[in-house]
Specification:
- Strand 1 and strand 2 form a beta hairpin.
- The chain has a single domain, classed as 2-Layer Sandwich (Translation Initiation Factor IF3).
- With about 100 residues, it is mainly β.
- The chain is elongated and about 40 Å long.
- It has 1 helix and 5 strands; from the N terminus they run βββαββ.
Length: about 100
């Protein structure tokens, strides 16, 4: 059974589903210490702009802002969350379908 989470009315799943894709998302958190829920809210807004109500193949990771981070001799934490996924339009609520 596919597991879903929801943010601002948009359903997220890590699964790959056989649906028509409306577009792809690659969202970088606007600042350090952004929470996963804030990242998903930003992705939900962007999914709605594309006409979708779902994001499949959702992935997130933490990545460095700059390739120069290891050049400096002092510690400079510049990592931010990055989220990716594919925007889809669910016809109904897939959480209630068999």
């Amino acid at each position: 059974m596919t597991r879903f989470t929801e943010s601002d009315g948009v359903l997220f799943t890590e699964e790959s589903l056989n649906l028509v894709l409306l577009g792809s998302l690659h969202v970088k958190a606007p600042r350090q210490n952004t929470t996963l829920s804030e990242l998903k809210a930003d992705m939900a807004r962007q999914a709605k702009v594309l006409g979708g109500n779902g994001v499949i193949e959702f992935r997130y990771s933490q990545r460095a802002d700059s390739p120069l981070k290891n050049v400096f001799s002092f510690k400079w934490d510049t990592e931010r969350l990055v989220g990716t996924g594919k925007v889809v339009l669910f016809e109904g609520d897939p959480r209630t379908e068999n």
